[in-house]
């Protein structure tokens, strides 16, 4: 079977498209998404596999932008297209991933990073205020990109209140759940899915939490026609006799590249090999391991938690200044036994311990914790030695002088 499908989708490799339709509906059911995201539903919704979360976000941003231009040209015929495009504006939180800002750069549309509340959550009232101010200034709000599971601390934006604002003000709402989407599959994480039935699009990286190898980023659209209408550019060599004759989507209109890879095959294999229950227990295992790590942190008074443990992520720091956190991380990175990265919020640096890997075990968490806490012990010992050094030197000099003096006395006596 050809791993790459090009150009005329139905003709070149129908299995590639048809299997993608099937696995995206499996996934939507597995993640308990609303029925309207399934290809099998009566409506215009459906899912597609993109290469990365960045691509999925960019597709949503571009489609929302084109839809806004179309509707604004209808309501404001006096404005030229370039005048409309010059007024477009988008929103996200200051906790969102760098790919959101990048999508704004690529789409030539400013994305305002709104301040998240103290608990790192973006809520509707902040968005509403920003939109109202911008509308008063003559701008045209296009899209809000919310995050479920921010990169820094895995915080969850308040989708319900953001959806209230977006629906009322006709703004596209996209949810980037690149990491936390895996939690949607669990009954005990129902809260995570609150409001998702009201969003226009969302994405989740199967290569992050679902044991599918890189690259595989699922994206769902409530109304795929909005993307197809925005991106449909035809040429004579792309036309074929089966066009418009079936319910099978032409995914080339749902993405940036023309050709596509057979990513559905690896999703199909993963589901067939591990089963839905196997995948759910994988996610549960990562949560349990993160809880095990969190208990280590809480039981050692030299450390503090920075944010609540969320899924497989624990954000913590050694008590003290940022320099202390940076020095501990540097030691750990130089030893190369474990890998972590730093993050910063409200001027405080912290460490992110993320459980990952195919087969992480409690013994791996113990190993990592031992490495971290013994390196903190060593760092503290070095610091206290360094702090005591000047007095030590003078103490030692005094000691040796006294010793020498008493030695020479003994020597003289014995002669
Ligand atoms: N969104 C979030 C919340 C992420 O954590 C990340 C990466 O870590 C991304 C987007 C970017 O993902 P990708 O590399 O698939 O573009």
TrEMBL record:
A Pfam family matched in the record: Pyridoxal_deC
Molecular-function annotations in GO: aromatic-L-amino-acid decarboxylase activity; pyridoxal phosphate binding
Record-given protein name: 3,4-dihydroxyphenylacetaldehyde synthase-like
PROSITE patterns listed in its UniProt record: DDC_GAD_HDC_YDC (PS00392)
Organism: Drosophila pseudoobscura pseudoobscura (Fruit fly)
Organism taxonomic ancestry: Eukaryota, Metazoa, Ecdysozoa, Arthropoda, Hexapoda
Keyword Lyase belongs to the record: yes
Cited InterPro entries: Aromatic_deC, PyrdxlP-dep_de-COase, PyrdxlP-dep_Trfase, PyrdxlP-dep_Trfase_major, PyrdxlP-dep_Trfase_small, Pyridoxal-P_BS
Protein family (similarity comment): Belongs to the group II decarboxylase family.
């Amino acid at each position: 079977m050809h791993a790459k499908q090009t150009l005329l989708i139905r003709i070149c490799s129908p299995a590639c498209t048809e299997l993608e339709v099937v696995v995206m509906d499996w996934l939507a059911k597995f993640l308990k998404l609303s029925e309207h995201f399934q290809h099998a539903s009566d409506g215009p919704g459906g899912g597609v596999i993109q290469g990365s979360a960045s691509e999925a976000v960019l597709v949503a941003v571009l489609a929302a932008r084109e839809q806004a231009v179309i509707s604004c040209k209808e309501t404001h015929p006096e404005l030229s297209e370039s005048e409309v495009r010059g007024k477009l504006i988008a929103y996200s939180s200051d906790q969102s991933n760098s790919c959101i800002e990048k999508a704004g750069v690529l789409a030539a549309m400013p994305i305002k990073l709104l301040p998240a509340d103290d608990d790192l959550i973006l809520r509707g009232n902040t968005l509403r205020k920003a939109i109202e101010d911008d509308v008063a200034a003559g701008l045209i709000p296009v899209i809000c990109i919310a995050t479920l599971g921010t990169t820094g601390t895995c915080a969850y934006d308040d989708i319900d209140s953001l959806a209230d604002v977006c629906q009322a003000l006709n703004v596209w709402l996209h949810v980037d759940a690149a990491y936390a989407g895996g939690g949607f599959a669990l009954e005990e994480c129902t809260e995570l899915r609150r409001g998702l039935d009201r969003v226009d699009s969302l994405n989740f990286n199967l290569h992050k939490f679902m044991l599918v190898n890189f690259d595989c980023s699922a994206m769902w659209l409530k109304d795929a026609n909005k993307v197809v209408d925005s991106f449909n550019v035809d040429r004579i060599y792309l036309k074929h006799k089966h066009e418009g004759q079936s319910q099978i989507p032409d995914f080339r209109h749902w993405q940036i590249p023309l050709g596509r890879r057979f990513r559905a095959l690896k999703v199909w294999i993963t589901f067939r090999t591990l089963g839905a229950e196997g995948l759910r227990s994988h996610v549960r295992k990562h949560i349990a391991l993160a809880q095990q790590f969190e208990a280590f942190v809480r039981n050692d008074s030299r450390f503090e938690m920075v944010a609540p443990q969320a899924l497989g992520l624990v954000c913590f720091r050694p008590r003290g200044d940022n320099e202390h956190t940076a020095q501990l991380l540097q030691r750990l990175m130089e030893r190369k036994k474990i890998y972590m990265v730093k993050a910063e919020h409200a001027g405080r640096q912290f460490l992110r311990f993320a459980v990952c890997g195919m087969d992480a075990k409690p013994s791996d968490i113990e190993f990592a914790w031992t490495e971290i806490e013994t390196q903190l012990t060593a760092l503290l010992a070095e610091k206290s030695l360094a702090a005591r050094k000047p007095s030590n030197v003078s103490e030692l000099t005094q000691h040796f002088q006294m010793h020498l003096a008493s030695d020479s006395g003994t020597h003289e006596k014995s002669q």
